[in-house]
Give the backbone structure.
Amino acid sequence: MQLKKPSSSLLALTTAALALPGYAPNAEAWADTESDAGYRFSFYKEGDISAEATNGHSSERYQVISNQFHLLMPRGEEWEYAADVTLETMSGASPWYIVPGDSGKPIQVMSGASIEDTRYALQGRARKFREDGKESFTASVSNERDYLSISGGGDVDFELDGKRTTISAGALYSHDTLNPTDGRSDRFPDRIDHATKNTMTAYGGVSEILNEQTVAQLALSYTFSDGFLSDPYKEAYVAGNIVADSRPDRRNQFAVNFKLRQYWAGWKGALHLDARYFHDDWGVAADTVELGWYQSVGDSWTVSPSVRWYEQGHADFYRPYYTVTRDDGHYSSDYRLSAYGALAYRLGVMDTWKQWSFSMALEYYDSNDGYTLHSVDQANPGLVDFAVISASVSRKF
Amino acid sequence: MKRVTITILLALAASGCALEKVQPWQREYLARPEMNWDAGLVGEQDMRDHTYVSKEAATGGATIGGGGCGCN
Amino acid sequence: MQIHSYPFKAMGSPCELKLYAEDRAQADAAADRATGEISRLERVYSRYRPDSVTTRINRSAGIARGVDVDAETAGLLDYAASAYGESDGLFDLTSGVLRRAWDFRSGRVPDRKRVEELLPLVGWDKIIWRRPRIVLPVAGMELDFGGFVKEYTADCAAQACRAAGIAHGLVDLGGDIALIGPHPDGSAWRVGVQHPRDLANAIAYVELDQGAIATSGDYERFMEVDGTRYCHILNPRTGWPAQHLASVSVLAPQCLIAGTATTIAILKEEQGPAWLSELGLSHLCFERTREGVRQC
């Protein structure tokens, strides 16, 4: 390369260029801190069911030990890939069916055997950023001894009006295969041994920046399920007989979701409000309100207490036990279709240090028919309380 | 219980009367991690949603979670 | 000493690292550092990523407070300011906004009015840059680092290889090439310059034993409408594409400078080659003719 006499222009450009860090003679490799890997451990344990509820001995219920691994990798100018792996072991006894006791009081019968099962799940996501939003595609698989779920979906965001408003929409399709343990066995001749279920969910939402400290989001979602929607391990007492839990083979669910996040600069904290109204064609209506406060402490800590209130009404065909048969043949005494309320209290703590982040959280969930706004005829004896303790660590690299 | 949702919407509309033209530079507060929709780490919100969906009748949010499971 | 080749795709182009190393392990380690640098810069200056410097700056357009930038971005802005001055305003980081009028995939030439509407948002002289604070005073203004980050990245990647102990090799990012060093025997690299009309072939070969070469032309992103070619190199003063030069290659000690010089030369149209000579850099220019191209 024959360099002619460099002009003053060239000298000016060269001087400016050489001031850049990329030309420093001992240029150290810049820390490439955009990828992220994390691990979360969580221990979920349900409170024992009382001797009073079972008219006999108190019994241990369910517990789940969960390990989650997360990896996030940006690629190039536009793409980002994420993978999540979950390994869970579940064990314990569950509610089985309810029988009428003295004066018609419902008595919970628990599944005697303590089952132990392991669940593996893998979820992958690819996300592409655009100047005015983004789109994502996800696919996941969850497998346990008696249940396989495969799902896929996508979502898209559009930012409008100087990025003040974001419109988002998404859809997910899931195909589940059930192979209940001991199906069609001598011990459980009425229990199915194979079934499938399909679920389609779609949602649309709008989020808006209201002012410099506040954002809010409103979303509507609709889910359609068909196939085997009952619980193969549960039964119901129907006029002296014990029959298999049998719910309709279709379900339409609707939810309206509202979220608010507001920063209080004087307090260095953020207020979180989440509310949801749910309704389905099985007759269940439910309200959820969660209020949380995220307090900044020092340079790197965040402490977040929160409270969540939940209530639901019962499904049309639900009864703790049935004294007459139903024309439609639907029976379920699962507490999850009964009327009840729950209050959950949670405390979380987070810290960051260099490329590391840590968090710990403790949550206590308490169900009671007294927590509902409407009155409940008869509480399901199988209502559950649980506690979760979880901890996570993640690192940018 | 439609009352709950309606009350919230009214409160929003009231505070919304202060709908200023937010200049993008003013988004410093909004960019803080504690202002995220999901402010937890390592899929914390997904995990919590999964637990609630297994133990309650209601589902549905503004995101698409993973698929189902046989959670009892 | 053997040569190790690492082809990959980045910044929208086919790229390659050619490294001489004592062993494969050393070459791999250097390639990792270099591709790490390339990924980093691709992400940090991406127009799309919500967490990139570009997005942060562009979202602050519209008010006096602006944003503070890091040392590297400050260095790039200082360089851009210098290039703006040395090019009579033709090298302009704010011209990216003209993209909104020019959609080369549509095959449609925009309305003159549409282009004129965007011109008030263009103009580095309107930006307030006082290190480390950058202010884009009018909402809708944006900075586009795409015009020179690729060449800077080639230099950074070459430097990363040197820091990893490589003394001979080159970094090729889609035709923008930064040398790490000549072949181990001291001989020069023979580099082909893409033919602006016959894209599979070279129009010329250049011998380089140090420094860098960058090439720009009207064949990278363009559309042909009614026999006229409109390319992606837009004049920030008129909003319209350069019309005269088909391809310009410049040799300079830094790829960043070589790249800047090619862009300015193309925008100087007929005066391009003379400007390059006056600048004092070796170059190769090809101008459009009715039949194809001709060396200037």
Remarks:
- Chain A has a mean pLDDT of 91.
- Chain A touches chain B through 110 residues (CB under 8 Å).
- The longest strand of chain A covers residues 195-211.
- Helices of chain A lie at 8-18, 51-54.
